Amino acid sequence: MARTESTMLPLGTIAPFFSLQNPLTNSYESLTDIAGELGTVVMFICNHCPFVKHVNHEIVRVANDYRVLGFGFVAISSNDIEAYPEDGPRQMRETAQKYNYSFPYLFDKNQEVAKAYDAACTPDFYLFDSELKLVYRGQLDDSRPGNGIPVNGRDLREALDNIFNNRPQNKIQKPSLGCGIKWKP
Predict the structure, then answer these.
(1) In Å, what is the CA distance from 111 to each residue of 25, 54, 162?
(2) Which residues does the UniProt record annotate as the domain Thioredoxin (predicted)?
């Protein structure tokens, strides 16, 4: 497993706009469509990465717990599907159904969205406030495949709770660690 850390986009960055295809519905969905009243979580994931597989169930739990509170969630796959066909739209649809994603799982065919977000790895998490300003970026929690730490979404949950309870964000934000995004040549 290649281990790549997230690049930690500067806090305060305005969420780059996107409109991407949802392989489950064959429709296009935009940042505006998925933005939540209180905040929006943008996740870069893929189907094949062991780091994503390790946290997939918790990603679903976090989204289910916080969507009802006014947060929007979206997952985006940006990998080169010629080199990694298991990350293609058909497999994305299967993954979304298998894990019962309650959020759109969008395909970044040209990798432009991943570049705009300076995404580096899967999984990579970004939390924007109600004005779409970045307030948290980094890891879901300290769990990694094989390290024995339970997956609980602690870091992202704390950041969501801070918005919900109108508290300042933790100044210490740890980068995510996962598979590097598979860039096209």
Answers:
(1) 20, 24, 31
(2) 9-165
Gap between the Cα atoms of 171 and 181, Å rounded: 26
Contact (Cβ atoms closer than 8 angstroms) between residue 130 and residue 166 = no
Q: Which two tokens stand for residue 138?
A: 């980094």
With 90 as the cut, is the pLDDT of residue 2 above it?
A: no
Q: How confident is residue 3, by pLDDT bands cut at 50, 70 and 90?
A: confident
30: part of which helix (H) or strand (E)? strand 27-30
User: What is the rounded CA–CA span in Å between residue 121 and residue 99?
Assistant: 21
Interatomic CA distance for residues 68 and 80, integer angstroms: 33
Q: What is the DSSP letter of 14?
A: B
Neighbouring C-alpha atoms within 13 Å toward the C-beta of 98 = 10
Q: What backbone torsions phi and psi does residue 124 show, to the nearest 5 degrees?
A: -135, 130
Once rounded to an integer, what is the mean pLDDT over residues 58-78?
98
How does the average pLDDT of the chain come out, rounded? 96
User: Tokens 């006014």 correspond to what residue?
Assistant: 70
Tell me the pTM. 0.97
How far is the CA of 138 from the CAs of 108, 114, 141, in angstroms?
A: 20, 15, 9
42: nearest Cα among 111, 115, 110, 104: 104
Tokens found for residue 73: 């969630």
For residue 47, CA distances in Å to 11, 14, 77, 93 come to 28, 27, 8, 10
